[in-house]
Amino acid sequence: MVERTVGLEIEKAYADLKAVLLEKNCRIIEEEAPTFISVRQGSLWGISPLTAKKNVNYRFDAVDSGTRITCSSSLASDWKNLTIIGSALAVVVVALCLWMSMDLDALVATQQPSYWSWIATVDGYIDFQTAQMFAGLTRMLAVFLAIILVAEVVIVVYVHFRINSFAEETLNALRQSLN
Fold first, then answer.
1. Where are the domains of the chain?
2. What would the pLDDT profile of 47-103 be if each residue is shown by its tens digit?
3. Does 2-76+162-178 carry CATH code 3.40.50.970?
């Protein structure tokens, strides 16, 4: 949660912040002028606190010295769902690739047909060189996807802990417009 006090009347603070939000291509999803405005900002494909799709709520309260603006941000459910589903599918593919590589490695070591040996079958015979190639390929794919999964976790944690960055940026822009 972010809170700032600006030296403006509540109506003026509301109008100025709304202009800043519209200038930053936010979509207004709810408003109760001059005490509340809720916007959607960011992209489904955003990977930073400023670009990830989120909902930002601004509350305006009149105080002696002007207007207190309180902001809270939350990640959009479709951004979270896409991240969860994509990560779950990547885990499944990593597991499948590891299974395939271990099975093909066992095929090469034992020279006994296995579940995935059909991949290395050429003209009815198992080609052990092809099996080795596919084992290496699936292992590399598993490692690549595991690295991507770790990066995704880092991105989600970073975005979660810095989710109010956009709210801070808009309040700073509002403050700068006063000067």
1. 2-76+162-178, 79-159
2. 999 999 999 999 999 998 889 999 999 999 999 999 999 999 999 999 999 999 999
3. no
